[in-house]
Amino acid sequence: MFSSPDDVRAKLAETGYLADDAIATTVFLADVLGKPLLVEGPAGTGKTELAKAVTEAAGAELVRLQCYEGLDEARALYEWNYRKQLLRIQAAGDGQKWEETHDDIFSEEFLLARPLLTAIRRDDPTVLLVDETDKADVEVEGLLLEVLSDFQVTVPELGTILATRRPFVVLTSNATRELSEALKRRCLFLHMDYPDAEREKAIVLRRVPEVPEALAERLVRTIRTLRALELKKSPSIAESIDWARTLVALGIETLDEAAVGQTLGVVLKHASDQARAVKELGLN
Amino acid sequence: MPAEGLIDRHVAFVGALRGAGLPVSLAESLDATQAMAAIDLMDRRQLRAAYAAAVVKRAPHRATFDRLFDLWWPPAVGDGESSAADGADGAEELEEVEPADLDAMRNVLRDQLREVLLSGDDEALRRLARQSVTGLGRTDSPPGRQSWFTYRVLRALSPETLLADLLKAILDGEQRGGLAEKVARQMLAERIKKFEEYVEAEVRRRLAEDRGVEAIAKTSVKPLIEQVDFLRASRDEIAELRRRVYPLARRLATRLTAKRRLGRSGRLDVRRTVRASLSSGGVPLTTIHKPHKPHKPELVVLCDVSGSVAAFAHFTVLLAYALREQFAKVRVFAFVDTCDEVTRFFEHGGDVGDAVARMAQEANVVWFDGHSDYGHSFEVFAQKWPDAVTPKTSLLILGDARTNYRALSLPSLRSVVHHARRAYWLNPEPRQYWSSGDSAASSYGDVVPMIECRNAAQLEEFVEQLLPV
């Protein structure tokens, strides 16, 4: 899909995603080496956005598997449509032999493909996004291992289905738990932290073009000051962008004490965090 | 395929990473070589990102990796001036100064540092760090025995003293003391810290050139923050630890919820089972159970907040509060030589960090001379709050059990412990020092199970076992 890290950066920039060296190089390598990319980092630093941007840049289609507690094979891989199978058996009547019915009800028609199988069977360029992998149970990781190392799925009744075209796989994680060593070993790892000031400013300007440059600069600096405090939840890039939008909507031109105090709720979502910021920054 | 010298370098580098505690498997090492073949090796940033993607699979390992990467794949050789074409203009200015004239050199560099800190140009900052180390970091020993020192550079340039001047330039007439100043201060502090890091990295690189990479690698790797001893943590490390409290609590809580889910489930949920069976023609293919209700204990924390163990107590109380959804109730008592309840500082959903600070100042924990007195504290606790510890309570005592040779009051403690559902004593001292000098670890250890808890990793392990499943 890409010819060099710089190519990655340029193509991602066209979609509105500003990548730094680490992101561009890692995405490039994941593509060239055909390995899944595991992206870890705090919430709101653009992990899912990266997958979407890669999809757009490569002209591919996104297949998304959202992980949650209790996610199982039937929801992630494939499932037999047993209601339809039941109907088929009942509709068959007495004349049909069991062997025929048996072969019939375990055919393509009765298979419900879930995201992992869908991604593997597609012939066109595909990006498979396994979102919030850390939310899923440990068993799901075992399932992912088979799919991600060989890009194949075994359905006992149909045989092994091999990927016709390897999808570009992105796994995201908020690091609420450590993923297994086996899974990590098969992936390339990218830790996404809060960006440096220059890049964050560029991102804000890109996403909210209406905001004046000086205000964006000031906003990013203030956000960084907030991140230096001990907070329950530090503001992420998503919050910076929201804040910029809020300031534009309210027509605020300078970010002084009053303006920050007025709009603090956009950036900090805990009452105790707000109280702390008000005190430390002397907003009253 | 990479050349042979490169492979040797790669193998040595991976060896050093393993030596520093990063679990790099053979498969990952091979991934790294494949990655090297795919990228532009002349671009050091690409090389760093490629290595990081292939061999560093945990965020806390990244700092160690960066240090070792800088040693094994240095950005420059020697003074670095000849190879770096873009560093030319800075070098010219320096050459006008006689090397012996340290004061003049210092002033030139300081002026440059002021400008660079103001502009925030990262590349210039790095270049300046290199020049400063060349000019100021060397000792005046005979050639061949010279050494390089970070503190010589930083003391000569003392970037902090530039702060007032820089602030004035940035604020440019804006009001002092307000938000603008806070923000500017933070920005400058970040840049100064970066400069210090660059100087340190540069010094390490020079030392490695003189003495060999392996020797420097061994001494320059810091322990991971989870492994830092509470009793020996520096101020920066304590701050770093406190910042980790909420992520740590979140991680623990998730793990516990998952464990609970895997534990025994409750009684059969008839309604939902029958409902689910309808879609399979009335055959209940799967049974559905009601979730098991977890038992939530009350937690009473009794902590020594005297100087020596305060950092440990604060961190543990912070963690207990961050986890308070896991308990029915949390009560905290602090003592030095007498005991006081400090739960009130944590209530009203206020900021826990503030509460810890206020607890140390306002609570009535000093009675006689401000030296730890475990015996008296336990007596006061047992007398004043006899109903605090009940059969539902898990009791947690935090302290190093150093009694200053005073009375132990074992009977008081025994009766308190007897009432509790479970009781533990967490001791931040290494086990081999227990019962040496004035430590009463073994006497108290007979009454309460005493557990060594020197760092965040051990604390995490303990909390996971303590909490109910």
Structural description of this entry:
- The complex is a heterodimer of chains A (284) and B (469).
- Chain A is α/β, with parallel strands linked by helices and 284 residues long.
- Chain A has helices at 5-14, 21-33, 47-58, 73-76, 82-92, 98-105, 115-121, 138-150, 181-186, 197-207, 213-228, 237-250, 257-267, 271-280; strands at residues 37-40, 61-66, 78-80, 111-113, 126-131, 152-155, 159-162, 168-173, 188-191.
- In chain A, strand 6 (152-155) and strand 7 form a beta hairpin.
- Chain A is elongated and about 85 Å long.
- Chain A starts with a helix and ends with a helix.
- By secondary structure, chain B is of the alpha/beta class.
- Chain B is 53% helix and 7% strand.
- Chain B has helices at 4-19, 26-38, 44-55, 62-72, 88-95, 102-119, 122-136, 150-157, 163-171, 179-211, 213-220, 235-243, 245-262, 270-277, 310-322, 352-362, 374-384, 410-419, 441-447, 456-466, and strands spanning 298-304, 329-335, 339-341, 393-398, 422-427, 450-452.
- In chain B, strand 4, helix 18 (410-419) and strand 5 form a beta-alpha-beta unit.
- Residues 82-97 of chain B have low confidence and may be disordered.
What's this, in brief?
The complex is a heterodimer of chains A (284) and B (469). Chain A has 284 residues and is α/β, with parallel strands linked by helices.
Strand content of chain A: 5-15%
Based on secondary structure, the structural category of chain B is: alpha/beta
Count of helical stretches of chain A: 14
Runs of chain B in which pLDDT lies below 50 for 5 or more consecutive residues are 82-97
Give a count of the beta strands of chain B, DSSP E runs of length 2 or more. 6
Beta-strand percent range of chain B:
5-15%
- Strand ordering within the main sheet of chain A: 2-5-8-1-9
Taken in chain order, the helices and strands of chain B follow as HHHHHHHHHHHHHHEHEEHHEHEHEH
Across the major sheet of chain B, the strand order is 3-2-1-4-5-6
Distance between the termini of chain B: 53 Å
Estimate the helix proportion of chain B, in percent: 40-55%
The rounded Rg of chain A comes to 24 Å
